[in-house]
Design brief:
It contains 12 helices and no strands. By secondary structure, it is mostly helical. It has one domain. Helix 2 crosses helix 3, helix 2 packs across helix 8 and helix 3 packs across helix 9. The longest helix has 52 residues. The protein is globular and about 80 Å long.
Length: 356
């Protein structure tokens, strides 16, 4: 009577509902990110908990397996973090003091780390560099790779450190029951089977991704620390500690850590720059083209152009969290598309067989 088309009305309400959902998601983005990190952390611990659960005698040992893994995790982090954290903090303080001494007007060029051919002009060079740094000090601080500071800040956030393991505990304890409950909401047998298969592939995908990330970070941190200690690069532990979390951010993280390493190495002694540059170039080739493809599952692999686009787009939309989540989000979307496309082709083949 009013001339309202029901189909247009339904489409309009659908658009409004999607817009409201997007607004709500944006409003709770920080909480949502914390829950996603907790879920990924749960996927990291899941294989260990499943193994201990199978080894322990008797039934209903899930809670005991969780307690054992969490006790081992807290103890290991405490022991390793105390040693590495103390040395890293000491090296960070030494580096800060050295930079502060370098910026003092009364500083001399006696210990200036310069190659021998530049020693005759070291005093003039020292004066020019000091003036430029002091003149643009605030600007330099603002233009330093902000991703590094944001990432380290996120890892140092006490709330996140406390809340994420608690949320992960509940995901590990009740996650499978929750997953079964969601799948059982679908009554259609074909859709039920499809949803169960998607849930299974999603579990494998995210578990392999998190294990690969941690292993890549450990390989990077241990290799950097060992090599820098061997060739005598100052602040080796500090540089390794910085490189470990940055390895979790695809593309941008390694670039930021490499920049920081080269700056600190050049400031501490330019004669070490050439071996460090060669080492970093060789390591990135091995890491990105040998180790990473081996650790990442076939379902996770994405075209490099797509990864670059996703990382930069994610960083623009949501900063460091967006860059961190860009690759798993794209991999999940790729998996969903491939699974749904296979299901569509299967239905088409079944329809053709039925017609025949």
């Amino acid at each position: 009577m009013l001339g309202i088309d029901p189909r247009v009305a339904r489409a309009t309400w659908t658009v409004i509902a999607i817009a409201l959902l997007c607004l709500a998601t944006y409003a709770i983005r920080q909480t949502l990110f914390m829950f996603i990190v907790a879920l990924l952390f749960a996927y990291l611990l899941l294989p260990v908990i499943d193994f201990i659960d199978r080894v322990l005698p008797g039934n209903q040992t899930r809670g005991l397996a969780l307690a054992v893994v969490y006790l081992l995790l807290v103890g290991g982090i405490g022991i390793i973090g105390a040693e590495i954290g103390a040395r890293g903090t000491e090296q960070a303080n030494n580096l800060a003091q050295k930079i502060s001494d370098f910026l003092k007007p009364e500083a001399t060029d006696e210990n200036l780390p310069l190659p021998q051919p530049l020693k005759p002009i070291s005093a003039r060079l020292l004066s020019v560099v000091r003036v430029q740094i002091q003149a643009h000090y605030q600007e330099l601080l603002q233009k330093l790779p902000q991703a590094a500071f944001k990432t380290l800040g996120a890892f140092a956030n006490v709330l996140v450190i406390v809340i994420v393991p608690i949320l992960s505990f509940f995901f590990l304890k009740d996650g499978r029951a929750l997953q079964r409950s969601i799948v059982n909401q679908v009554s259609d047998p074909e859709k039920h089977r499809l949803l169960a298969e998607i849930a299974g592939e999603l579990n494998v995908l995210l578990a392999q991704y998190m294990r690969a990330l941690v292993l890549l970070g450990l390989v990077t941190g241990i290799t950097y620390g060992a090599f820098f200690e061997i060739i005598g690069v100052p602040y080796a532990i500090l540089l390794a500690v910085i490189a470990f979390p940055l390895e979790f951010i695809p593309m941008l993280g390694p670039v930021v850590s490499t920049t920081i390493i080269l700056l600190v190495t050049g400031f501490s002694g330019p004669h070490r720059l050439i071996p460090v540059i060669i080492f970093l170039a060789v390591f990135r080739i091995v890491q990105d083209y040998v180790i990473s493809p081996h650790l990442m599952s076939a379902g996770m692999q994405l075209h490099p152009l797509l990864v670059i686009f996703g990382v930069f787009a994610g960083e623009q939309m949501a900063g460091v969290p967006g860059a961190f989540l860009s690759v798993p989000v794209m991999a999940v979307l790729r998996m969903l598309y491939r699974r749904l496309e296979r299901a569509r082709l299967l239905r088409s083949e079944q329809l053709v067989e039925t017609v025949k």
